[in-house]
Amino acid sequence: METFEADYSKYDFKNSTDYDVTFEKGLSEDVVKRISKLKGEPDWMLEFRLNAFKFFMKRPVPQWGGDLSKIDFNDLTYYLKPIKDRAKAWDELPKEIKDTYDKLGIPEAEKKFLSGVEVMYESESVYSSVKKELEDLGVIFCDTDTALKKYPELVKKYIGRVISQNDNKFAALNSAVWSGGSFIYVPKGVKVPMPLQAYFRINAESMGQFERTLIIADEGADVTYIEGCSSPIYSKNSLHAAVVEIIAHKNSHVKYITIQNWSSDVYNLVTKRAFAYQNAYVEWIDANTGALLTEKYPSVYMLEPGAKANILSVALANRNQHQDTGAKAIHLAPDTSSTIRSKSICLNGGRTSYRGLVKVGKGATGVKTSTKCDALILDKESRTDTYPYMEISEEDATVSHEASVGKIGDEQLLYLESRGIPEQEAINMIVLGFMGEFIKELPLEFAVEFNRLITLNMEGAVG
Question: What are the pLDDT digits (tens) for 6-37?
């Protein structure tokens, strides 16, 4: 049986970085203009940002979810550029940045089985690589800033189409100050054989990271994208407010996997949404094991007949953490189907919440949708809540919802301990078994890494 050592140093380390461009703390219209000017953006993007900034200033901080009252938007840094020019080869990166990602295993993952890698450090992409055979097929995989320069008409056509500047307060903030993120375009009929990966790292204290990811799968295309996130622990809070937009055209398949391990001082407030057209299939596979507060509800809008959605989210809330996660399946066309599965674990006084929406619009006949929420509570101090919403406007729909809350039984532990397995290891085995449905969805290397994250978080679950 494999054992894991509780070595948080892989994620909780800080590097001294000499930044090429540094902004002072605070948010204003001038900050928005400076970001756009530094990037040499077209006028329409500056207008996009400024309109979003106006929306952000007008909209109140949401009161319906976790506690956001302690976010001080003027105590955050909105832009840090770590290096002057993006590296063309891994060895060209500054040592302190290269060391960061070496510790996280990015070069090894790239060499082993990835079709492409995008690496973001603070506000900018510092490195990207895509296999030549994919470029020859017309696949575009780069950071969103590069896409804006090289493919402006494509970006202009799709950015903000799925998630508008005024969708919510934090989507508006992202639209105003976005930097970095991944841009993917897969042409008609092209199937990307191995995953594309991006890794987002916050290194500085009181940092705001606002990547913007846009994935377009053309008719019949197939792509899997894996996203990882981490940061060191500081005494002051940081903010991660990303936006992810997916456009899945007719008969396409997009699978988006997230393994997030932000430190316990990060507000992780992310808007993720997909448009699925005729017979398209969108999968969100989402794991949240860190952050002070996570609010994230991956959504699929099924706009044409035959579209399908599969949303699987897992969350682990440890001491002083609140994972407010869930999913949205919006059926706006006939014969569409969706599956929502949620797994959550809370321990040491942590809190998990499932917040979901299933909507069947008028005229969306023949819909099939199911939701299943399972929560595991490991002590009396922890808490879990479920907030399911269903709006069904058609009688011809098959809708199911199932929820369960449990704890690790004494009989389970006694059985394993009677076989010579120590209590902590027995708890780890039960928890990993509970998460097995999610782990099966991951490529092998990432499944091993996720097992490590869960086991590290479980240290101290005994007693």
Answer: 343 444 444 544 555 677 899 999 999 999 99
